Amino acid sequence: MKWNRFTLKTKTEAEDIVICTLAEVGIEGVEIQDKQPLTDEDKAQMFVDIMPEGPADDGIAYLNFYLEEDADTEAILKDVRAALEDLRSFVDIGEATITESQTEDKDWINNWKQYFHQFYVDDILIVPSWEEVKEEDKDKMILHIDPGTAFGTGMHETTQLVIRQLKKFVKPGDELLDVGTGSGILGIVALKLGAGHVVGTDLDPCAVPAVSENKEANDIREESFDMMIGNIIDDKAVQDQVGYEKYDIVTANILADVLVPLTPVIVAQMKKGAYYITSGILDVKEDVVVQAVKDAGLTLVEVTHQGEWVSVTARKD
Ligand SMILES: C[S@@+](CC[C@H](N)C(=O)[O-])C[C@H]1O[C@@H](n2cnc3c(N)ncnc32)[C@H](O)[C@@H]1O
């Protein structure tokens, strides 16, 4: 199959919101080319700690996307341009020029699907949208998740560590806060395990369409999973919106360097007796997070390991 490649020139600070806008008009799998150094949030999202120094940031981002050769390119680009003009009224997206740069002859856009197949996390089956559930698996707890712009397919050890803790601690009707919700996978598992309601927060605006798609794919009622974009660590408005002494469980699968400042903040959001399930901690940082939960006045409940990753669970007594 032939694909036409288009390159959209924008500003680095606008690239996330532009990618979300492209997703809203049906364009996914966008490649980013920029010279921006990774922020702590990027590192938290990508699970990398050290990156070599790159060239200086010039503020420009090139976003490459692909359309099938027989797609109605004119109509799609018209929708893209209209969506970008709407966006321009509240975000500086720079030139936002689109150029056709290349034709590729391979089905690369679908090629990666050969690397993502259904798999089990213990007794929970995670199935991408392009695969059928086998007859013998239909009685299992099934999660429909596709790899997308937000982190969280269930393949990563850190996600699996939290899923196992959710299976131990979720009670019917629980109110759950998921900090760094990404694809929403942890909230969706919690709801399937009987939780009553989930609030997800993330810094990444792409988490909003990702959670929305995954709710729909998993028949989650609209009102049972709310999303908020912002940084609960230092944004009082986000803390107020999330609410205080409200949650039976808080999950946070983020790097240790984010969990340390998050922990003292999150205690105020938890009910008495609530559980705090953290993950995303490299084994060398285990002691730092254990100390942070103790310093925040929480009681250490359990530390679990998978590969080089650690999950720390604590309770507010
Ligand atoms: C490793 S992913 C976890 C995704 C999903 N919850 C899972 O368990 O698979 C970490 C997520 O945390 C988000 N994140 C990083 N720092 C954050 C912060 N201070 N507040 C909210 N989200 C944050 C990232 O954008 C990313 O989506």
- Which structural class is indicated by helix and strand composition? alpha/beta
Number of helices: 10
The major pleated sheet works out as: 7 strands, mixed
User: Which superfamily, in CATH terms, is the homologous superfamily of the largest domain?
Assistant: Vaccinia Virus protein VP39
Mean pLDDT: 90
CATH topology of the largest domain: Rossmann fold
What is the 3D form?
Answer: globular
CATH architectural name of the largest domain: 3-Layer(aba) Sandwich
Give the SSE order as H and E letters: EHEHEHEHEEEHEHEHEHEHEHEE
Name the CATH class of the largest domain.
Alpha Beta
Strand content: 25-35%
| Overall tally of structural domains | 2
- Distance between the amino and carboxyl termini: 60 Å
User: Based on the structure, what is the oligomeric state of the protein chains?
Assistant: single chain
Number of strands: 14
Ligand species:
S-adenosylmethionine
Protein name: Ribosomal protein L11 methyltransferase
Binding site for S-adenosyl-L-methionine: 159, 180, 202, 253
GO molecular function: methyltransferase activity
EC number: 2.1.1.-
Walk me through this protein's architecture:
One of its GO terms (molecular function) is methyltransferase activity. Pfam families: PrmA. This protein has 317 residues and is of the alpha/beta class. It folds into 2 domains: 3-111, Alpha-Beta Plaits; 150-315, Rossmann fold. 31% of the residues lie in helices and 29% in strands. The chain has 10 helices and 14 strands. Helix 6 links the parallel strand 8 (175-179) and strand 9 (197-202). It is globular, with a radius of gyration of 21 Å. The model has no long low-confidence stretch (mean pLDDT 90). Bound molecules: S-adenosylmethionine. S-adenosylmethionine binds next to helix 2, helix 5, helix 6 and strand 9.
